[in-house]
Each structure stands twice: as structure tokens, then as C-alpha cells.
Write a structure and sequence with these properties.
Blueprint: E1 11-13, H1 22-31, E2 35-37, E3 41-42, H2 43-47, H3 51-55, E4 66-71, H4 75-89, E5 93-98, H5 103-106, H6 118-132, E6 137-144, H7 152-162, E7 167-173, H8 184-193, E8 198-201, H9 207-214, E9 220-223, H10 225-229, H11 233-243, H12 252-270, H13 273-287, H14 294-301, H15 307-325
Helix pairs in contact: 4-6, 6-7, 7-8, 9-11, 12-13, 12-15
Amino acid sequence: MLPWFKDRFPLYVAPMAGITDTLFRGYCKEFGADVVVTEFVAAEGIFRRNARTLEYLEFTEAERPLGIQLFGSDPDHLGRAAQMVCEWKNPDFIDLNFGCPVNKVVSKNGGSALLKDCPLLEKVARAVVKAVAPHPVTAKIRIGWDQKNINALTTARLLEDCGIQALAVHGRTKEQGYSGLADWEVIGKVAQAVQIPVIGNGDIQSPQDVAQRRSLGVAGVMLGRAAMSAPWVFAQIQEFLKTGELIEEPPLEDRWKHIVRHCRDGAKRIGNETIAMQCMRSRLMAYSRGFPEAKYLRSLFSGIASLGELEDIAGAHIVRNAQLAEPVAEDVGVALA
């Protein structure tokens, strides 16, 4: 068994393209995430030593345990790419992407396209497991291609037989994309059908959601969009699992401190503040979810170009909402000084 499943219920950070870079993964670890996975990396890019692709392999020791997620459809190239990654970076595990629903990936027979071609999926899994042994290999799947082709049980058993050591299951089909509800009944059936740990993924927003899903027999859970909007959710879940106590959202000022820090670190990493802030616009939109005046904030974020602008927005927002929260004295016929 992978060590992070021993005597614990691990919280995973889902791999998300353009989101789960080394900065974001590090923040999630600070807030209490147990395991992180890189955004998916094209095996062909590694195989060809593409400079841009190789940047996605970077991580810090503080992020461990960490998995590097690969996608592709050529068993030989995937096996060699995984071997190269292990030799260069020594991640804690290799993760195989059999779940991405994005058409530009699926059209190249990658991601969830392999859910329609189990013989090829098996060849890919076996090739990677053999190439990197004894390095662990895990995988992520969706429950099927569409509602008429829910084959998660078949896929899970096949991957277990190939030597995959843990399996993340997203409770939607490829055709659903990220719409509709995740089917946790299917995830629970997968967890009961195999001996390897199953990590459930989809529609987890709160500690209560985790407790409810855990009762289905999953060995851990994976958070994606909830973590993107509020990475402190990991601290809330960890506390709830440990004590049963619900802790409140961080104060507005603390949330803003984190957001400014993220942008400042991003600017430092990129080396160009304007470009960094342009890249962060979509991230700021996600962070605004659940904030007071979220719609207004998003209108400001759409054209933001500097850290100074962000700090001004944050300061004004904090002051405005502090004033709104001040108690209003009742009129009891006494003049107030």
C-alpha cells in the first residue's frame, strides 16, 4: 500500500491544467492537503525534450508526496517518458490521465478517449508500470464515456490487474465534462470492486461532503474546483475529520492576504509583473467565488495589470465590508454623541 494511505484518509489536490502549478500546490500543502498531482504533462513533449513541457515537471521537496501526471496514447513513448521523468525528477509516483474530457486531448486519443479503447488503455498502463518499476503508478479515470457507456468497474479491475496502485475516479462521464452532478454511487461501487485504494472526485465543497462520501468506502478524496476557489478548505476538512468541529472561513482580510501573496509570488516567479497579473486574472475570478460583492470584484479583475491595483482593490473591499458589518445602534430615544 502507498504510505500516505496507511492510517489516514488522504486529501488530494486534483490535477488541473493551468491551475496546479508548483505555487498553488505548495499553498494547498500548507493548508493541509496530503497529496498533490501536477497538471497533466504530454508524454510526447517529454519524449522529445520540449523545453516548455519540461517546465511542468518542476516541484519542491515541500510538495511531497507528489505525483507527475502524464497523458498520451503510445504505450512505448509513455513508458519511456515515465522512465525519463523518474530518472530526472524522482516523483513519489507517476499518475496516468485517462479522464481528461477536453477535445484537443481526446482528439489525439488521449485522456478519456482511452475509456472507449480498453485494450489500448491496458497496453499503456502495463507499459508504464513495467518501465518505472518499482516506482508506483496510479491513474485517474471518469466513470465512462457517456451515460450509455458507464464502464468504470471494468476499467478499474483492468487497471488493478495491470499493477496500478491507486485509482482516482471522477464521478462524471466524458460527455458531461464538468456539468451536471458527479455520480458517487458508481464511485462507491468501484471502491467495493477493487482491492487498491480508490480516491473519489467530484462535487466536494465542504467537510460535510467529505464525511458523507467517505461512508461509501473510498480511501481518500480529491478536490479540484473547491480548492481552486478556497485552498483553505483543506484545513477545514482536516479539522472536521480530526475533531468533528467545523471551523469558519478565514476572515476576509486573511483571504485577501493569501490572494495578494499568490499574485506577488507569481510575479516573482515569472519575472514580469504585468504578464503575471494578466495570467492571474482567471485565478482571481475563482478566488472571488463566495466573496461579498463578487460580481463587482470580477469586473475589476478583468482588466487588472499590477500588484498595486490588486492591493488597492483589496484594501477598499476590506474597509467597505468592515463598515457594513458594524452594528447599527437602535433608536431608543437617546441622542448618541
